[in-house]
Amino acid sequence: MTLADVRRVAGRIRWYVRELTGESTYDRYVAHARAHDPEAQVMTRRAFERSRTDAREADPREGFRCC
């Protein structure tokens, strides 16, 4: 296996893990916001995650969190 093969496999694993954990969601949000309005204020990652968590917990279809 060549170094290029290792890098390609590592890149695919990294992509999969980022998709699985939701880490890439913020990157997609930033790209979308910049594409539609380059001058718009973009939320920080912390504010984005807080907003996402609040929305998920407010949705009755998602159930509730006891702890």
Automatic annotation (TrEMBL):
Residue span of region Disordered: 42-67
The record's section on InterPro entries has:
Sel_put
Which superkingdom is the protein from? Bacteria
Composition skew (Basic and acidic residues), residue ranges = 46-67
What is this protein called in UniProt? DUF466 domain-containing protein
